[in-house]
Each structure stands twice: as C-alpha cells, then as structure tokens.
Amino acid sequence: MVLTALAVVRMRSLFAVVMLSGIFTLLSALLFVTMDAVDVAFTEAAVGAGITTVLMLGTLALTSRHERPTARSPLIPLFVVFVTGAALIYGTMDMPNFGDPTAPAQTHVGADYIARTPEEIDLPNMVTAVLASYRGYDTLGEVAVVFTAGIGVLLLISGLRRRRRKDEDNEGSA
Amino acid sequence: MRHHLILRVVTKLLVGTIILFGLYVQFHGDFSPGGGFQAGVIIAVAFILYGVVFSLDQVQRVFPPWLVHKLVALGLLLYAGTGLFSFMRGFRYLDYAAFDPHHPSHGQHYGILLVEAGVGITVTGVMVAIYYAFAARTPVISDEEW
Fold first, then answer.
1. CA distance B46 to chain A (A)
2. With contacts defined as CB-CB under 8 Å, which chain A residues touch B118?
3. Taking the CB of residue A121, how many other CB atoms lie within 10 A of it?
4. Taking CA atoms, what residue in B is nearest to A59?
5. Largest CB tally within 10 Å, which of A109, A171, B56, B129?
6. What does each C-alpha distance from B72 to B69, B119, B130 come to in angstroms?
7. pLDDT value for A83
8. Do B137 and A65 touch (CB under 8 A)?
C-alpha cells in the first residue's frame, strides 16, 4: 500500500494514477478482510475499486490526461502532511488494541445488539440487523444523502445542458 | 470499442452473471456479507460495463435515463414508505414488527428485505445516473490516445 501511494504521488500520467489508486483501494479492502470486517471490505472493493475508477476515467476523458508540473516548493504541503500524520498517530495511541474486549465500542450498545439480535431479529448476519433495523434511521439518512448527491451531480452536469438546448429550440422556433 | 471482439463477447457473458450476483448479494444479505449498498453498486457496474464496452446509446436503450431517474427517487420512497407503513399500523416509525405483529422477528425479516431493496434501488439509480451524466458529455476518444 505504501509503495502504491508513493507511486501515485510520483506519477505524472493521470491514467496510471487512477489505475494505481484502484489497486490501493483493493489492497485496503484486503486489509479489511484480514480484520474480519467483510461487509466493509465488500463495499470498499465494489465502490472504491469499481465505480470510482470508472468515474475517474470518465472525468479524465473530459479533462486532460497529464498532470502539469507545479512550480511551487513542496516544503509547506510536506510540513502540513507530516504534522497531520503525527497528530493522527498520536491519536491512535489512546485507542484500545484491536479486538480488545474492554474497548468502549464493545461494552456499551455493541454487547446489547449481540445479545438481542438472535431473539428479536433472528438473522445470522448481525451487520444487516444493526444496519437496517436498530440503526434504521441512520441508514435512511444515508440513502437520503446518496439520493441528494445523485440529484446534485445530475443538476450540475446534465441538467444545464438540456435547458440550454431547450432555449436554443425556443429561439429557433421564435 | 467496435473492434475489440474478445472484450465484447466476454462482456456479453459477464453482464448477466454480474446482475445475478448483485441480486444474490441483495437478497442474501441477511445471511452473508452484503446488502443493499453493495448490491446496488454491483448491479450498476453491470450496466456501466455494458455502456463502456458497447456504447452509451445501446445501454440507454436497455436502461433509459428517465427510468434511472425515477428509480433514484423510488428507492428512497420505498424506504421511507416502509417507515410510514409501520406508522399507519400503530407502531413506531421504521418498527418492522408492524409487518407481522404475531411474529415480530418475521416482521423484521420483511422490513429489512424491503428497506434493503429500497437502498439497492436508489444506489443503482444514482450510480448509473452519475455514469450517464459523465459519459453523455464525453467526446469519443480513440484507443490510441490512452
């Protein structure tokens, strides 16, 4: 993953960058599988490696296929990246170890869901039970977000063109 | 991509399989990893693949844009409608026990199935709609330019 990330930074050909970021996403999906988060890995592989790559290629076809070399010095961005990275790593020190049974995420509602799912919902996949039933409002919100995002893209990219064409038609008839 | 014979034949074979797999992920999500979000993306990928290998016109003949746009809204309405249904039956919003008051866990199964279907429909619609929006603007580029 580190190698692909470095390659993405160094590359100038944007086509190769898109392909490499697809590989990066696939690798992180593998990481999720290793950590037993199969549902997350599934989403990562389908959305990140699949759809995003296609959409990036679509964008590339609309814009240019090569990155312009920048003249500015990379020192300030590098500094910001290092400080942010250090802060993030410092933050992970307080986090409980992976799979720690006393972690806050395991002790509050998590245990409750695990205890209640077999009798209340009776589904083998607990992720689905939590996602669709206990957290039904959240998922409804997520769908609304996806919906809004889709509408936004449609308005920005396809709607304007259509209206302009209609205007031209009106002018032509008048 | 008119001259890529292998690509076209393989795509024709794969599109059906991908959609079938998407439906499996959709309706088997209760028992195995997956659910509406993943299934929606997988089904959308089938249409996008078809559009990339053949042409935008051909995929839009199968799956016209007006239908895609309706699906985007339909999925969200199905989800919200499920909640309203349980409201009408005198339960709390999105309390799926309303579907089968005698066996609350069966009701949960129906509710989750409907809600996941709503998620899947919206996600498929949005993904395909975004692809259409991008692809409709794209000038056709020759393969050598890549």
1. 11
2. 143
3. 25
4. B134
5. B129
6. 5, 10, 11
7. 93
8. no
Best residue in B66, B67, B108 to probe A by mutation, most A CBs within 10 Å? B108
Q: How far is A48 from chain B (nearest CA, A)?
A: 10
Q: Quote the pLDDT of residue A86.
A: 92
Which residue ranges of chain B lie beneath pLDDT 50?
A: none
Are B25 and A125 a contacting pair, CB within 8 Å? no
Phi, psi for A169 (deg, rounded to 5): -60, -45
B86-107 as b/e: b if 16+ CB within 10 A: beeeebeebbbbbbeeeebbeb
Mark yes or no for CB contact B80/A128 under 8 Å.
no
Domain that holds residue B109: 5-140
Give percent of chain A with pLDDT exceeding 70: 75
A5-28 pLDDT, tens digit each:
777 777 777 788 888 888 888 888
In a domain, B146, yes or no: no
State the best of B126, B128, B138, B140 to mutate against chain A, taking most chain A CBs within 10 Å: B126
State the pLDDT at residue B94.
Answer: 74
Q: How far apart are CA B126 and CA A153, in angstroms?
A: 9
Q: What is the mean pLDDT of chain B?
A: 81
Compare CB distances from A150 to B80, B125, B141 and report the shortest one's residue: B125
For a pLDDT cut of 90, what percent of chain A falls above it? 3
